Amino acid sequence: QITLKESGPTLVKPTQTLTLTCTFSGFSLTTSGVGVGWIRQPPGKALEWLALIYRDDNKRYSPSLKSRLAITKDTSENRVALTMTNMDPVDTATYFCATTAFGSGWFGPHWGQGILVAVSS
Amino acid sequence: SFVLTQPPSVSAAPGKTASITCVGNNIGSKRVHWYQQKPGQAPMVVIYYDTDRPSGIPERLSGSNSGNTATLTISWVEAGDEADYYCLVWDSSSDQYVFGTGTKVSVL
């Protein structure tokens, strides 16, 4: 059974750096073609893709946020981390991690439950 | 950047058909995926690669993609189909995944 779970702070102050962790089980990032992505959703708004990482450490970032994002993996601990710098209230959102397969072009079928992060002073 | 536009809302009576469009420049040349999201839940893919359904998704849900419009069609609408729906593509020219603006489906 494949599961993913996001963890991290639920409240950060403007200008701070956010680090979220996606801890997963039931699959390994040592498997060829396997990847994990991050997607966020502001309250009442649409989904937005942020970043993804594959087994071979191939990384992709949203062009509009690339300067603020960093994605890393810890294969031995089955974790993927996302760091976002210079947080702003507009970054208030639920952040999801999800599985992906190289070249598939979509996320899933396995998603985490999401973590709501508020940015406020 | 590549933009995908969906109608904010679509409604249909039980047993009728709901069609959700996803408009983007030459989207027919890309592979489109559709997600259903119910309140408080993570999105769930209901159509991938334009027309394919994951196991467990009823045949009532179907997809098509041509020209500048991709469409998710829900036939024989049921109360359980009430949700937000999003399209998704990988845009190779801008090297990014792009979600549509989202459509709320209401069952009358």
- Outline the low-pLDDT stretches of chain A: none
**What is the percent of helical residues of chain A?**
under 10%
**Which chains share the greatest interface?**
A-B, 24 and 25 residues
Averaged pLDDT of chain A, please? 96
Order of helices and strands of chain B: EEEEEEEEE
Helix content of chain B: under 10%
SS field, number of helical segments of chain B: 0
Radius of gyration of chain A: 14 Å
Number of strands of chain A: 11
The whole-number mean of residue pLDDT values of chain B reads: 97
C-alpha end-to-end distance of chain B: 36 Å
Number of helices of chain A: 0
Distance between the termini of chain A: 40 Å
Class from secondary-structure proportions of chain B: mainly beta
Q: From N to C, what is the helix and strand string of chain A?
A: EEEEEEEEEEE
Describe the protein's architecture and organization.
- The complex is a heterodimer of chains A (121) and B (108).
- With 121 residues, chain A is mostly beta strands.
- In chain A, 0% of the residues lie in helices and 53% in strands.
- Chain A is built from no helices and 11 strands.
- In chain A, the strands form 2 sheets. In chain A, strands 2, 4, 5, 6, 9, 10 and 11 form a 7-stranded mixed sheet that branches.
- In chain A, strand 5 (48-54) and strand 6 form a beta hairpin.
- The mean pLDDT of chain A is 96.
- With 108 residues, chain B is mainly β.
- Chain B is 0% helix and 45% strand.
- Chain B contains no helices and 9 strands.
- In chain B, strands 1, 3, 4, 7, 8 and 9 form a 6-stranded mixed sheet that branches.
- In chain B, a hairpin with a 2-residue loop joins strand 5 (61-66) and strand 6 (69-74).
- The chains are: A mainly beta (121), B mainly beta (108).
- At the A-B interface, strand 5 and strand 10 of A face strand 3, strand 7 and strand 8 of B.
